[in-house]
TrEMBL record:
PROSITE patterns recorded: ABC_TM1F, ABC_TRANSPORTER_1, ABC_TRANSPORTER_2
Organism expressing this protein natively: Winogradskyella poriferorum
Domain spans labelled ABC transmembrane type-1: 19-337
Keyword annotations of the record: ATP-binding, Membrane, Nucleotide-binding, Transmembrane, Transmembrane helix
Segments forming domain ABC transporter: 371-604
Taxonomic classification: Bacteria, Pseudomonadati, Bacteroidota, Flavobacteriia, Flavobacteriales
Domain of life: Bacteria
Gene Ontology molecular functions: ATP binding
Protein name (Swiss-Prot/TrEMBL): ABC transporter ATP-binding protein
Transmembrane segments: 26-47, 90-115, 179-208, 283-302
Membrane disposition: Multi-pass membrane protein
One Pfam entry name: ABC_membrane
InterPro entries: AAA+_ATPase (IPR003593), ABC1_TM_dom (IPR011527), ABC1_TM_sf (IPR036640), ABC_transporter-like_ATP-bd (IPR003439), ABC_transporter-like_CS (IPR017871), P-loop_NTPase (IPR027417), Type_1_exporter (IPR039421)
SMART domains for this protein: AAA
Protein localization: Cell membrane
């Protein structure tokens, strides 16, 4: 249960509900025991076995509380029977029993009522923190992790932790107290009989603990497999067009079914192990009761050292121990499953981001002179994709990066926006190393338009508002006009309030890209980064998008990563890259005159 300590910061805000639950469970355990004990005088009344007490007993301290309690009840029964008859005494006993059972169930409900707020509160806060962590971890983290596994952790695993929280409180408060109070009452009734019964309890405990020993490992396998099939589902939904286009439905179906079959087998093993807990503890319990009936029955019938009412009450208390004992064995399994789930949740929460802001990180709110890339080298894994790379981007100038795929162009965009950190060298803005700035303020200075138009299942307006949340409708429309998007948006049924579907799939590629540009225009950052923003478009869409880009880049500092060279002829500086290094740089005209790599790239593409 060490994971409870690890999750304590999520539990502490709801501790008052935990305390109220514990108080309710204490009263539940107390009234459970009293309800069983109250059966004894009723049976004695029925069978006339009660001791007649005609004088009101005197309380003589805690040592004599047992005899004082018995004499008090017998005094009430004796005086009531003599005055009103035995039937009136029986009625009083029945009212007492009903009252005690009502109180027992009332406190049971209150315990569950209070714990609901704690469990659901922890669930909410855990999910919120994981989601916050997911959005703050670097992009490199997700190149190693499957998205479906992350989804499984934020949904299934967190839910498992929630369920185990109730089990923990049952394990440490409710059921142990119920057993403890019952045992105290059993000792008060007969020490000899209780010691005899207790010879069997260690055997039961050993058998139950053997069943649950490997549960955490089996539970972890189930949760891991859940992450695998959710990953397959997520990839299927993301790539449905490709799957259908290549008739690959069977391949993906087979992969999904292999995973669900493994999940089926692991779940069967886990559930059957859990299901074994209840019948095992019940069989062990009934064996204990059987032995109790034989030994206790001889005390009533032969030795005459125990009354019939006391023995029936004792049997009730012994049986009452069985229910919480079964609950404890079930709860211990839930705790083990919750422990496995908590490990997976905490793995995300405890992951340290290598891109974390420094404690003394500065907030930079403006861009004054230039962006410098100073002798940087960078590798994603083993091989360097950039080597000793240098570039200066003065304010108000546009610099284009061109070259073959894999030359490191897009990596520059990832490093300047600090999605990754350089291995060697530095990147600075106005002479300040970007590692010394807060990521939030750094990215506030930049607008990003990528090759893939990343849009969300929401309205056009809300997608564009990501650039500036408090923008008015007029500002949104102005941004759409600059991006050449207003022409098609105004024709839509609900204009800027039209929902564009999942990933914007209700729109064409060119329309999606122009919305991405409108989003960047509305943000109005001093530095614009365009990562192959037109490479996926047809000629007509490219012209519209290119016009939009030129509108946006006027008097703005720009880093343009281009595949189509027709889009960057007017750049102030064109940098030609090859295998992570600069091989040529200059204006379009200067580079053509050099008759080098750039000239060859131009000749390979047709200009219109």
């Amino acid at each position: 249960m060490d994971y409870i300590k690890k999750l304590s910061r999520f539990i502490i805000p709801y501790k008052r509900y935990g305390i109220l639950n514990i108080i309710s469970n204490i009263f539940y355990a107390l009234f459970s025991t009293l309800a069983m004990i109250s059966l004894m005088p009723m049976i004695n009344v029925l069978f006339g076995e009660g001791k007649k007490v005609t004088e009101k007993p005197i309380y003589e301290g805690i040592k004599n509380i047992k005899s004082y309690a018995e004499d008090s009840i017998n005094y009430i029964i004796t005086t009531t029977s003599e005055e009103y008859g035995a039937q009136r005494s029986l009625l009083y006993m029945i009212i007492l029993i009903i009252s005690l059972f009502l109180l027992k169930n009332l406190f049971n409900y209150l315990g569950l009522y209070f714990i609901t707020f704690l469990r659901n509160g922890v669930l909410k806060d855990l999910r919120n923190e994981i989601y916050n962590k997911v959005t703050h971890l670097p992009i490199s983290y997700y190149s190693e992790k499957k998205k479906g596994d992350i989804i499984a952790r934020i949904s299934g695993d967190v839910n498992e932790v929630k369920n185990s929280l109730l089990a923990v409180l049952e394990l440490i408060v409710k059921e142990p107290l119920t057993i403890l109070f019952a045992i105290i009452a059993m000792f008060m009734i007969s020490v000899k009989l209780t010691i005899f019964v207790f010879l069997f309890i260690p055997v039961s405990g050993f058998i139950i603990s053997r069943i649950g020993k490997s549960l955490k490992k089996k539970s972890n396998r189930v949760q891991t497999e859940q992450g695998i099939f959710l990953s397959t589902l997520e990839e299927t939904l993301s790539g449905l067009k490709v799957i259908k286009g290549f008739n690959a439905e069977k391949k993906f179906n087979d992969e999904f079914q292999k995973s669900t079959n493994r999940f089926y087998n692991f779940s069967n093993i886990l559930m059957n192990r859990q299901n074994l807990a209840s019948p095992t503890s019940e069989v062990l319990g009934i064996i204990t009761i059987a032995v109790l009936l034989w030994y206790g029955g001889s005390m009533v019938l032969v030795d005459k050292t125990l009354s019939g009412g006391a023995f029936i009450g004792y049997i009730g208390l012994a049986w009452q121990i069985l229910t919480p004992a079964k609950a404890i064995s079930k709860a211990s399994y839930k705790v083990k499953a919750g422990n496995a789930a908590a490990d997976r949740v905490l793995e995300i929460l405890n992951t340290e981001s290598p891109l974390k802001d420094k404690p003394d990180a500065k907030v930079k709110s403006d861009f004054k002179s230039q962006l410098n890339i100073n002798n940087i080298s960078f590798k994603y894994e083993e091989d360097y994709v950039l080597k000793n790379f240098n570039l200066n981007v003065p304010k108000g100038k546009s610099v284009a990066l061109v070259g073959q795929s894999g030359s490191g162009k897009s990596t520059i965009a990832n490093l300047v926006t600090r999605f990754y950190d350089v291995n060697e060298g530095s990147i600075s803005i106005d002479g300040e190393n970007i590692k010394g700035l807060t990521k939030h303020s750094l990215r506030n200075l930049m607008g990003l338009v990528t090759q893939d138009s990343i849009l969300f299942n929401d309205t056009i307006k809300n997608n564009v508002l990501l650039g500036k949340e408090d923008a008015t409708n007029d500002e949104v429309i102005d941004a759409l006009k600059i991006a050449n998007a207003w022409e098609f948006v105004k024709e839509l049924p609900n204009g800027i309030d039209t929902n564009i579907g999942d990933s914007g799939n209700k729109l064409s590629g060119g329309q999606k890209q122009r919305l991405s540009i409108a989003r960047a225009v509305l943000k109005n950052p001093p530095i614009m980064i365009l990562d192959e923003a037109t490479s996926a478009l047809d000629t007509e869409s490219e012209r519209l998008v290119q016009d939009a880009l030129e509108n946006m880049m006027k008097n703005r500092t720009s880093i343009v990563i281009a595949h189509r060279l027709s889009t960057i002829q007017n750049a102030d500086l064109i940098v030609v890259m090859q295998k992570g290094e600069i091989v040529e740089q200059g204006t379009h005209t200067e580079l053509l005159t050099k008759q080098g790599v750039y000239k060859k790239l131009v000749e390979m593409q047709s200009f219109e």
